[in-house]
Amino acid sequence: MWPTAELHVHIEGTLDADLIRELADRNGLPVPAGAGRGAPFRDLQDFLDVYYANLDVLRTRRDFQDLGARYLARAAAAGVRHAEIFVDPQSHTERGVPVEDVLLGLSAALADARAAHGMSGGLIVCFLRHLGPDAAMATLEAVLPHRSLLLAVGLDSSEVGFPPSLFRDVFERAAAEGLRRVAHAGEEGGPDYVWEALDILGAERIDHGNRALEDVELVAHLRETRTPLTVCPLSNLALRTAGPDLADHPLAVMLDEGLRASVHSDDPAYFGGYLDDNVRALVAAGTVTEDQVGVLAANAVASSFLPDAGKAALLAEIRAHAERVGAAVPALALDPAAV
Ligand code: HPA
Ligand SMILES: [Zn+2]
User: Among 12, 84, 159, 187, which one carries the catalytic annotation?
Assistant: First the structure.
């Protein structure tokens, strides 16, 4: 297993049918009708409707700690050495769950994973674009007392009709607080949404970014600025934003174009697989070669918000793994200065 970094996973999207049933039972709640529903979905919204309904079983700090712990144990088995985890606080505070229970429960799981698996990681608070910019700003204010637990802010949920520009002020305020910035863009929205995420929000990574390939100037810009794209192939098939054949997934073009793309799991309980499952499926479909799997791992580490020393240490692990299995050493692992 290549050592790697997970940069695009929604913790609520790791809530599988077993844990839904367990939490429903523990909290004295009915099992949501969508428990166990998986791919395919009609589109992003069809999926989100199920995702928001199912997460109603998450009520207590312990629920969030258990959710995080199960994901992190599974991620460790996939070779994940560093995990930057998305969380949607609004999907919980809207239901009356205190934000500190969400953040402290997940942070406890991250601390336990450091001890148990030697994994590092942190939380990225995402704003739900369908609730608009005022709710996003209120959410930022609500999480700032827990600033030390947070790496970054992000933007997710229904994309089309909610362009990044709506969230200019909240991203500006987050940056002023020293938070890093990422945004979902180009999943269903066009290249104009990716430009806005970069130019207006100051996003340092683009989550998905598939539709960036429709704009040659944008592709050149992403290459020159080494802007990371966190790509989720099984998610794209499940939500019909790519495919139906994984062999036609845009990741191959992204790598050919020299873009800093890496592979992640998005909502693995719904889309049929964790990070390693995504990678295995890509290799099986012939979308990437075995040697490119090492490039994807090195890109993920380089794209993370780890400090330089942490990146160098993980790139050294990747180099050692390549040498052990006789694979090509990814260029970034040979020359960490190029990160
Ligand atoms: O795939 C996704 N896209 C946008 N928002 C999301 N929130 C959870 N998963 C997703
Ligand atoms: Zn996502």
Answer: 187
**pLDDT under 70: residue ranges of the chain:** none
Number of domains in the chain: 1
Which residue owns the Cα nearest ligand 1 atom 4? 157
The reply to whether 290 belongs to the active site is no
Of all residues in the chain, what percent carry a pLDDT higher than 70? 100
pTM here?
A: 0.98
CB 256 within 8 A of CB 263: no
Give the CATH number for residue 68: 3.20.20.140
Ligand nearest to the CA of 240: 1
Length of the chain: 339
Q: Which residues line ligand 1 (CB under 6 A)?
A: 10, 13, 44, 51, 156-157, 184, 187, 235, 266-267
Give 189's DSSP letter. Answer: S
In this structure, which long-range contacts are made by residues 192-199, counting pairs with CB atoms below 8 Å and at least 24 apart in sequence? 192/163, 193/159, 193/163, 193/164, 194/218, 196/163, 196/164, 196/165, 197/155, 197/164, 198/227
Nearest to 14 by CA among 69, 89, 82: 69
Range of the domain at 246: 4-338
Give DSSP secondary structure letters for 221-264.
HHHHTT-EEEE-HHHHHHTTSS-SSGGG-THHHHHHTT-EEEE-
> Are the C-beta atoms of residues 251 and 261 closer than 8 Å to each other?
yes
User: What are the tens digits of pLDDT across the range 244-259?
Assistant: 999 999 999 999 999 9
Tell me whether the omega of the peptide bond preceding residue 30 falls within 30 degrees of 0, making it cis. no
